[in-house]
Each structure stands twice: as structure tokens, then as C-alpha cells.
Input
Amino acid sequence: MSDLEKFRAETRAWLEENCPPSMRTPMPEDETCWGGRKPVYKNPDTKLWMDRMGARGWTVPTWPKEYGGGGLDKAQNQVLQQELGRLRARPPLSSFGIWMLGPALLEFASEEQKRHYLPQIARGEIRWCQGYSEPGAGSDLAGLQTKAEDMGDHYLVNGSKIWTSYGNYADWIFCLVRTDAKAPKHLGISFLLFDMTTPGVSTKPIKLISGASVFAETFFDNVKVPKHHLVGTLNAGWTIAKALLQHERNMIGGMGGANMPGSSGLRSPSAAAKRYSGEIKGKISNPALRLEIAKHNMNSRAFGVTGQRMADEMKAGAPPGPASSMFKYYGTEQNKRKYELLLAAMGTSALGWEGKGFEEHELGITREWLRSKGNSIEGGTSEVQLNIIAKNVLRLPD
Amino acid sequence: MALVLNEDQVQLKDAARTFIQNKSPVTAFRKLRDSNDKDGFDRKLWKEMAGLGWAGIIIPEEFGGVGFGFTGLGVVLEETGRTLVASPLMSTALIGASTLILGGTAAHKKEILPAIAAGDWLMALAHEEGPHHSPYAIATRAKKTDDGFVLSGKKTFVLDGHVADQLIVVARTSGKSGAREGLTLFLVDSKTPGVKITRTLMADSRNAANIKFTGVKLGANAVLGKIDQGADILDPVLDRARVGLAAEMLGSVREEFERTVEYLKTRQQFGVLIGTFQALKHRAAEMFCEIELSVSVVLDALIAIDENRNDVPQLASLAKARLNDTYFLVSNEALQMHGGIGMTDEFDMGLFMKRARVAMASFGDSSFHRDRYATLEGY
Output
């Protein structure tokens, strides 16, 4: 038996033993495990599953062991993901710490910071939020004004952030602050970490067009942050910010792929069209809608194949391409189109707001359709992604 | 298999680019057009291409080919697309060879495949009967006789029809036009009495012909594959043609796009480079994304053919529809972004524009392939 096959056998046995049966069922959105200091677990198995996986480092399988990760190489991680897929296991932990902050810390933080923060992320002990956008700094992120003044033994932070995802639930924030007001805007930004319970921090949820409140406004009023909470070099935070944005864009862009769980079953436009618009001999009865859906699905497939091609090129040693901006742009536009097609296919059945007149998934689609409109805005608008491609890939002049 | 070219394929692509850029730049194609060349392609060049193994690139070594597979043919076709090379690669090396490999008898293969690989014989698929691609809309009839068949009917838009030595004719041996059942493929010498070939001059200056068959007598050995079951060969041949043509179109698209981006970096108006305008930047970036997706689907489809995967029909429709749409977009945008100069015959953008529309109409336009894809996927 090869080492990898041995690893597979051990992994399978451990998962069979440790993955609670209720964690092998499709996950309703309100059972997503975000971890943190003040979690609410609708199902106690959620915490058990997170704790067991976290203790093994398998919430972050490829991170080094000394930082709380699983220390797995690519091949082992692939085996782990296959075995998790075999059980249809739920993700043990969803977190901005894993998707965004962790990779940035691995690249830019001091050894001491890595040993302190990364294991907490791996075990789901701290729920992180992102302090990037400000009321006056959206697409022009580098124009941010929240300032951190050097007070000798600490920084004093004043200002406000907006679109802080789950800011009102988070324990800590990774935050872009201006530390040099005189420097050109990209060169006066630093990357700070601090506790959301620090005196002077407050949040206010923002109600969206979908009715949900997944974002908050975050205010800083004379917040004292110890100096060792600075990541990387003072005034060089923009480099970290950009690297982290790439992780964020990959995460958001991934939603447009054909293989996303949301694209099958009740959320597949072709299935919805058959059910709500009718079918004739197995074909969607509305021919115009049918061809629109086919075009969309073909684009999704092409998008999925492109993700696979880029991954294969990287494995073959090609340098990382312009992937993240292209994926963010194309993926989010695809996701928006998918919801517009679901609405077209379902008619008024996808326009219910609440109450008993509609099935649960129908009401879900109404809200998801509205939520999807933000995909091409958050994490850098589609227009910003096109600017990045024009500048960094096509090298068009400024 | 990984979605990357292997070392041999990368080498082939580099060699093909060097050869084609040197031996057959766009000026060569212009010369054929402007001299009203009677063949519409360069026979000497074709011999050289055959010498490089390209005429027999998908033909197994036992029949005189190099057995390099569809991915190999695809990278060569892509490079020919960059300079709009008019050559029998599609009609003969791809379609002719594929039909014989999939449907020919041992005797056919032994006789014809080596002649194709050597660049000696040219082939043409006589299939379409109307202005839109429609695989089973075949009214041309082949009536059974005591010692063979008698063929009558009309074909249109036969690629390389007027230079072909051998025609592969799709005819009906039973059933009505539109039915998949009842089609039979015949190998017909183009000099057989009753075959009347008329060259048609297309906007893209590539070769095509109308062919009329009047009581053409064929021996029983003219049949390729099984009688009435010709669609079993025709369908996979058409899929291969769609993917190959998509590869050629990809080369044209990349060439046009690269030239256009370069133009945005050199043309000045209002005292600045026009590439500084966001209205143009965004459109260029959108084209870039569409082209990246196009690269992926063409490669995936080529590899799928080589691996004999069962999703080749879906991937062929995906690749052809996507390249239709991308070539449409890029040919329009390239001309618009070049402004007035793009409208001149002296400039190449018009040549790509004309080629785009003929290529889009060949082997199925986008609505044909979206309809087919939806059917294949069960909706």
C-alpha cells in the first residue's frame, strides 16, 4: 500500500468514526458554522464536528502544523476532500479567518503573530471580520480615511468602516488604517488587528434590499490598539490588502461555477423552467427561455473548465495568472444571470416575499436573487476588475 | 488528463507558428485572393505541410500518418487561423481522414489514408443542402441497383469541393429528409460521369462548391460504414469538424485581439493614447475573459476526442457555439476600435470579419448548438 493509500484508509476510518451523522446531511444556511466566542449552535453536533476537525488541524488542512493546521501536502488534501465528499460531510468551519486573513498572515505576519492568531482561527475560537470599505472609500479603497495615530505605546484609531460582513457578530477585526496622512494614498496605509470588544468600537447592522442584514457599519471612537497588533511594516499595509483581496475575489467568484451546490436541483434554471414553465417531450416548452438557459449553462461550464485549466497550468509550473480578477468578474456576473433566469423560469412563484403562499425554496430564491446583486459590487466591483485586467494583463496605458 | 499541452504538443505549436508565419503570412492569402487563383490554395505549401506530417496528423502510423491525435491537429489549426491560411487541413486532414478512420473498410483505409497523409489526395464532404447547417436534412437520394447505387441530388457549400479528388457524399437510402435513420455515406470519385461541380466564391475567399449529382452510378464498394446508418459516422465526424474549426477560429480570434490591443497602445487621439479611455479598456478586458474561456473549451474538447470521452458531443457544441460568439464579438470590436482604417481592404481586419461569418455558419451556428446542447443535457 502506498503512503497515500494508507493515508486514505486512515482518513476514511477516522471520518467514519468522528463525523456525526447529522453533519452528513445538506446544510441549511442557518446552520453554517462560523465559530467564535459567542456562537449559537442550532444543532450541537455542529460544534462537536468543528472541535474534532479543528483539533486535527483539518479545518485548515494545508496550513503548517505549528500554526494549528493539518500539515497536509496537496495530494493528501485532495484525498481528504474526496473522503469528506464521499460522506457528504458539511464544512466543519466557515470563516473569513480561514479564507482571507489566514493566508495573508502566513505570508506577511511575524512568527509570534502566526503562532498566536493562526491556531485560534483553525480551532474556530475567534470569528474575524474585515475592516476595509469606508463611506467615502468604496471602489477607491486606497482613499480610506480611518486613521491610527502613534501614541507611543499604542495606536489611537478613529473613523468608521462600512460593509463589514457580519461585523456585529465578529470577535476581532483586520482593519486597514491610515498611518501617514501626508504620503501618497497607497503608501500611508497599515494593517491592524484588534478586538471588537475594545472600548470605543461599536457596530450597527445594515438592512439590505433582500431584507437580511449580513453587513454592518463599524465605528471607532478613540480605540486604543497595542502596537504589536500591527501586521507587516508600518505604512506598507496596501501590499497585504491587495493580496488579501485576491483571496476574497477567488472566494466570491467561485459562486458562478457550474459545480456550485446552489446550481443543482431546485436552484437549477433548467429544472425550474421545466417545473414552472412546462415541458414538452422532455424539453422546456418556452423555446426562447430554453436557449437562454442553454447559453448560460454553457458559459458556466466553460467557466468551470477554465478554473480547472488554470489550476492544471499552475501545477505544471506556470506562474499565477490574472485569475482572480477574471474569476471575480465572470463568476459574479454568471451568478447574477442565474438568478435572473430563475426568476424568468418561475414567474411570480419567485417573487413572493414571505408567508404561506409560497414554498420555502421559492421564498429563498427571491431573497437570494436580491442578495446576488451585491456580488458584482463587494470585493471590488466588476468595473474595478475590468480595470485591473486592462492594466495588469493587457498593459493598457493609464 | 490535465488541461495543458504536453511537451510534444508545445513543440509542435511552436514549430507550426514559425512555419506558418514564414511560409504563409496573411499576404500569401491575399495573393491567392487577388490573383483569382484557380485552386484557391497553394498546392506547393500543402505538399510542404504534408512533409511536416500535418496531412496525416490524425492518421495512424500503419496508414502512413504520424498519429499525433486531435490535440496535435488542433494546435496546428489554431496557428493557421492566425494568418487565415487557406489549406485542405479541414476538408482532407480532418474530415476526410476522420470519415475513413471511423467508417472506411480495411481496403479503403489502405488505399486512401496513405494518399491523404502524403498530401496527394484531396477530400471533400458533400453534406449540406440548404443555407443552414442541418445534419439530417438530406434529400439527395441513392437508389439501390443490382450492382450498386445510383446517386441524384444537389449539395451546397462543399468545402474544397472544386479541388477534391474524392467526395464523401451524404445521401438518403431510405426515409424522409430530416430523419436520422436512412442516411448512407458514399465515397465518390469527383470525375465520375454525372458529377457536376461549380465553384462558389465566398466572402472569405475560401474554397467552396455547389455539386449536382445526376444519375451517378456507384459500385457497392462505394459505401462507407453501414447502409441507412450513416449518421453513426456522420455525427462523430461533424463533432470533430466543429472542434477543429473552433481551434482554427481561436487562432484568428487571438491574432485579431492581440493586434487590436497593440493598436490601443499606439494610436493617439485628443493628444493621448486611445488605450487610456475606459470605454475601450473595459471592452478589451471583457474580450480577454471571453477568449480565456474559449481557450479552455477548445482544449477540453480536443482532449476529449483523443480520450474518446462520451461527452464529446456536448463539448463540440460548447466549443463551436463559444467560438462563434467570441469570434463575432472580437471581429466586430476589432474593426470598430481600429476606426476608419479597419474598413479599408488594405488592412486585415476585414479579412478576419469575412472569415468569421463563414466560419460561424459552418457546421452549425450558435443557436443550432445551444439547441443541441440543451437536448443533449436533457432539457
Q: What stands out?
A: The beta strands of chain B are 123-126, 141-145, 148-159, 166-172, 183-189, 195-201, 207-219, 223-224, 268-269, 272-273. The mean pLDDT of chain B is 97. Chain B has eleven helices and ten strands.
